[in-house]
Write a structure and sequence with these properties.
The protein is mainly alpha-helical and 285 residues long. It has 2 domains: 176 residues, Orthogonal Bundle (Cytochrome Bc1 Complex, Chain D, domain 2), CATH 1.10.760; 88 residues, Cytochrome c-like domain (Cytochrome Bc1 Complex, Chain D, domain 2, Orthogonal Bundle), CATH 1.10.760.10. Helices cover 63% and strands 0% of the residues. The structure holds heme C (2 copies). The site of one heme C (HEC) has 24 residues, from helix 1, helix 9 and helix 10.
Length: 285
C-alpha cells in the first residue's frame, strides 16, 4: 500500500513536471532544435546507430540521402499511419524489419530537423552487436509479473509499471491508463525493442520516472519475458476472455439496474397505494 501510494505521488509529480516542461517546450522550439545530438542520444540511440550497423532499427547513416526531410519527419511522428496509408518506402522498411514498429515520437518538426542535421554531421558510432536473446525462463516471467504490478520492488526503487500502463493478464488486475496498454507490445516492438525501451526509455515521461532509478539488466529481462508471455497468452485466450468480460459486465450491469429500480420505486411503495384508493372508496360510499 505504501509502495503504491508513493508511486501515485511520484507519477503525479512526473506528470506535472512533464506538462510544465511541455509548455515551456512550446516557446523554446528554437533552443531545443539546437540540441539534435542530445535528442538523438535520449530518444533514438537505444534503437539506432549512425554508422555502427543495425540495432533494433536500421543504421541511420546516410538516411538523409535515402529519404527526404519531409518523409523522415512524418515517419518519426507517425510511421504506422504511413504504413497503413501504403507509403511504399514505409511499407518496405516495416516489412524488412519483420513488422516491428517504431514507436511514434512526439517531437516537433524543428526538433527532427535538428536530429537529421546531427545524423548528417556525427562521427560514426562504433560497431555494435545486437544482443542475442534467449527464451525467458519460468522464474524470469514470474519475477517480471511481480515487478510489473509492484508485488516485488525494483532494486533501484523505480515506480511500478502498472501505475502508468495496463496489461491484460490473468494474474494482473487493472493498471494505469496514463500510457499505452502493453498487452501486445511484444508483437509490436519485438523482444529487442522492448528491452531497448526498458533499458533506456525513449519517452520523456517514462524517462523521467526512471532517470535516477534505472532498471537492472535482470529486471529488464524479467519484464520483457513477462510481456512476451502476456502477449502470447492473450492471443491464445482472446475469445474466452472476451466472453468472460461480457458476462461480468452483464452481471454487474444487471445488479446496478436492479439497485436503481429498487431505490427509484421504494418511495412509491411506502405510502401504500392500495390504502389511499381504499380510503377514497370508503369516503365516496
Ligand atoms: C524502440 C526502438 C526505436 C526507437 C526509440 C526509434 N526507432 Fe526509428 N526505427 C525503429 C525500427 C524498428 C525501424 C524500422 C521498422 C519500422 O519501424 O517500420 C525504424 C526506422 C526508422 C527510420 C527509417 C529508416 C529508413 O532507412 O528508412 C528512421 C528515419 C528512423 N527510424 C528515425 C528515428 C529517429 C530520428 C528516432 C528518434 C527520434 C527513432 N527512429 C527512434 C525503431 C526505433
Ligand atoms: C510515469 C509513467 C510510466 C511508467 C511508470 C512506465 N511507463 Fe512505459 N511508457 C510511458 C509513456 C508515456 C510511454 C510512451 C507511449 C505512450 O504514450 O504510452 C511508455 C512507453 C512504453 C513502452 C513502449 C510502448 C509502445 O507500444 O510503444 C513500453 C514497452 C513500456 N513503456 C514499458 C514499461 C514498463 C515495463 C514499465 C515498468 C518498468 C513502464 N513502462 C513504466 C510511461 C510510463
Amino acid at each position: 500500500m505504501r509502495q503504491s501510494c508513493s508511486d501515485v505521488i511520484l507519477v503525479t509529480a512526473v506528470f506535472v513536471l512533464g506538462s510544465v516542461s511541455g509548455l515551456a517546450a512550446q516557446d523554446q522550439t528554437e533552443r531545443v532544435a539546437g540540441s539534435g545530438q542530445e535528442l538523438f542520444q535520449t530518444r533514438c540511440a537505444v534503437c539506432h546507430t549512425i554508422g555502427g550497423g543495425r540495432l533494433v532499427g536500421p543504421d541511420l547513416e546516410g538516411v538523409d540521402e535515402r529519404r527526404s526531410e519531409e518523409w523522415i519527419i512524418a515517419f518519426v511522428q507517425h510511421s504506422q499511419q504511413m504504413v497503413a496509408a501504403g507509403d511504399p518506402d514505409a511499407v518496405a522498411i516495416f516489412e524488412q524489419y519483420s513488422q516491428i514498429m517504431m514507436p511514434d515520437q512526439a517531437l516537433y518538426d524543428e526538433e527532427i530537423r535538428g536530429i537529421i542535421e546531427y545524423i548528417r554531421t556525427a562521427e560514426p558510432t562504433a560497431p555494435v552487436q545486437p544482443v542475442a536473446l534467449g527464451e525467458p525462463t519460468e522464474e524470469q516471467i514470474l519475477l517480471g509479473q511481480q515487478l510489473f504490478q509492484g508485488r516485488a520492488r525494483f532494486a533501484n526503487g523505480g515506480p511500478t509499471c502498472n501505475s502508468c500502463h495496463e496489461v491484460t493478464h490473468e494474474a494482473v488486475l487493472g493498471g494505469g491508463l496514463l500510457a499505452r496498454d502493453l498487452t501486445a507490445v511484444h508483437s509490436r516492438l519485438g523482444a529487442p525493442g522492448v528491452k531497448a525501451i526498458l533499458g533506456s526509455p525513449p519517452f520523456p515521461l517514462m524517462q523521467r520516472a526512471y532517470q535516477d532509478k534505472p532498471l537492472t539488466d535482470e529486471e529488464v529481462i524479467a519484464l520483457a519475458g513477462f510481456l512476451q508471455q502476456a502477449d502470447a497468452e492473450q492471443a491464445l485466450h482472446q475469445p474466452r476472455d472476451y466472453g468472460r468480460n461480457l458476462l461480468f459486465a452483464g452481471v454487474v450491469g444487471t445488479v446496478i439496474l436492479l439497485g436503481l429500480y429498487a431505490s427509484f420505486w421504494s418511495g412509491r411503495l411506502k405510502g401504500s397505494v392500495n390504502q389511499s384508493i381504499y380510503d377514497r372508496q370508503v369516503k365516496s360510499t
